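Self-study notes.
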Amino acid sequence: MTGRAVTDKADHTSVLLQEVIQGLDIKADGIYIDGTFGRGGHSQAILEHLNEDGRLYALDKDEAAITAGKAITDKRFTLQKGSFSEIEKWAKHWGIFGKVDGVLLDLGVSSPQLDDATRGFSFLRDGPLDMRMDVEQELTAAQWLAVATEEEMTRVFKEYGEEAYGRAIARAIIAERLERPLQTTKQLADLVSAMVPKGKQWRMTKHPATRIFQAIRIYINHELEALEAFLQQILPVLAVNGCMAIISFHSLEDRLVKRFIQEGAKGDPYPRDLPIRGAEVAPGIEKGIVSRASVEEVNHNPRARSAVLRIMRKIK
């Protein structure tokens, strides 16, 4: 009883697909949430493991993803425009709060988003400096770069991009915008490349602008704040024995997820000499597998090379 797969982009490949399905330990009659629908690859795979009593709910902020998702014609499937940062609100709206058997987040930018030059996510394709996941959001990358101070840009580039030349790049942007505003991805990529010493560039495995584009995207879309909000809400949303699976693509996201799982697996931090029952200090989370893309998957889909999947299970 499976609806049609989404085929918005023929070359779109869902990262760590089999590992996600295995890690979620899907029950045929279970309730699941895909918090980052994208182009539906993970959702379609989850649906294929559900029987007629199973249910899948999905969220995405990108209107293009919502439009593509209309291709799935399945009564067991519900798709809503919204953010996983409000997972509690949506679970209550759907009447499944505390009943969810598994939640998935794929935190990467989707292939269609990267391949569409008009979205401004990629420095490999010249287009407007946009970078908004939700195009109804007001602030674009170009608008922020036009007004941000040197200190603000330096902080964003260093914190979210871990860019060693953050201050020099910030100063160059300010000097450039006095002459002409930064409006295109090529303008920004060329400027960043000019600020990174040539002697450093030949040793780089990634384009010199990679970290700057990542930092701006994370900042204007509030990506880390959204992930932190999700993690604060997820445990009450899950049923006992429910699983959480998160695929991250850079160390900032992965660090948040890893710390959340590690702290949950320790149990409540009561003083050792406090006379309480063992069950009260028992951990509420069981750590699961950590997976990375295989050599074969990376060869087939190079965008999977930095993906890390972490699984946890709620046990009380």
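Second protein, same conventions, sequence then structure:
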Amino acid sequence: MTIKPLADKVLLEQFEAEETTASGLYIAASAQEKPEFMKVVEVGPGTEEDPMTVAKGDKVITAKYSGTTVKIDGKEYTIASVKDILAVVE
């Protein structure tokens, strides 16, 4: 299945959450926090008010509770507005 975001929307994929702490303790899956670092999978064309400032493959930092989470072919993605992206990680 192919997903093509519309207008100023982007399709994001989450990085895997840390499974251990810095000291080596394992974190239960239910206690792991969703990371705010994401990878851009697809981008919409943008709008005049909100031009597209990210590209496919960029690593980005998003606002904590932004976007809508969807599950497609067993993988979890987030569809968010380009306004919800706070920074590009280089």
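Instructor comment on the second fold: The radius of gyration is 14 Å.
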